[in-house]
Amino acid sequence: MGSPSEEQAPTDALYPQQAVIVCAADGRRGEADALAQRLGLPVTVEPPQEAGRLALVLTAERLQVQLTGAAAPGAVYADFVTGATARRGREAARADEGLLRAAGARQGQTPEVIDTTAGLGRDAWLLAAVGCRVTLVERHPAVSALLADALERARADEEAAPIAAGIELIEAEAIAVLAGRAADTIIVDPMHPPRRKSAAVRKEMQVFRALVGADGDSDALLPTAIAAARRRVVVKRPRGAVALPGPAPSGSIDGRSTRFDIYAGGAEST
Ligand SMILES: C[S@@+](CC[C@H](N)C(=O)[O-])C[C@H]1O[C@@H](n2cnc3c(N)ncnc32)[C@H](O)[C@@H]1O
Question: Which of 24, 47, 84, 182 is 20 to 30 A away from residue 92, measured at CA?
Fold first, then answer.
C-alpha cells in the first residue's frame, strides 16, 4: 500500500498543523514511506511552501520536527549522543540533579522507573545514565518516532549504547500502560502553559507545542501513577506553579526553574 498523498492528508486532531513527512536524504525514501504509512501522513521531498505547517524531516543524520516558513524556529529532535542531554547524562553521577534526588536515584540507588510522559526523553536519559532501568511511555506517534530514532542512534554509539540498553520505549497512553505495570518510581511531566523562558527554550517549546498540544488530561494521570508506584511518584512542575489537583505532595524539591513534587506510591513492594 502506498503512503497517503498530500491531497489526502488527514485532518487528524493529532496533527492540527497538517503535518507532512519530508524525505530530505538520498537513499532514505523507503524509511520515509514506512514512517508516513505508520503515522498516516503524506510524504514530500521539499518542505511545504506555506508558513506554519509542521514537517517531520528525515535527514541523512536523524528525524527532526520543524515548522515551515522563513521565520520558523529551528528543528527539534531527541538526541542522546551529542549536546546537552548527553552531557547531563555524563555528569549525572557527580551533579546535584533535583530529578535524581526526587526519584530516589542517588548514592547507588537505581529504582526501576516508568516515565509516563516521555517527550524528548531528557529526564529518562538522566535516570538511565545513573543505572536505572527506564520504561518510556509516549502517546504521540510522532514524538515516539523521534524517540525511537534517537535511541537507534544511541545504540550505535559506543558511549551511549550501554545507557540506551536500559531503556524501553512504549508508544501508548500511559494510563493504559499503568493498568498492567508497576515500578518503583513513576515520573509525570505533562506539558504546562507557556511562561517566561530563554529565547532558545521558547522557540523549541513553540515547535513541540505545535506538535503535541496541551496535555489537558494530566489530572487523571496522577492518581493512576500513585496506584502503580511501589515507592514514589515525581511530578515535574514549573517553579511557582500550583501542584496538580489531587492529593497534596508529601515533599518537593526546588530546582532553578523547575519543582519536583513527590507523592508516596500506593502499590505493594515486591
Ligand atoms: C512536557 S513533555 C515531557 C518532556 C520530558 N520530561 C523530557 O524530559 O523530554 C510531555 C510529553 O508527554 C506526553 N504525554 C502527556 N500525557 C501523556 C499520557 N497520558 N500518556 C503518554 N504520553 C503522554 C506528551 O505527548 C508529551 O510528548
Answer: 182
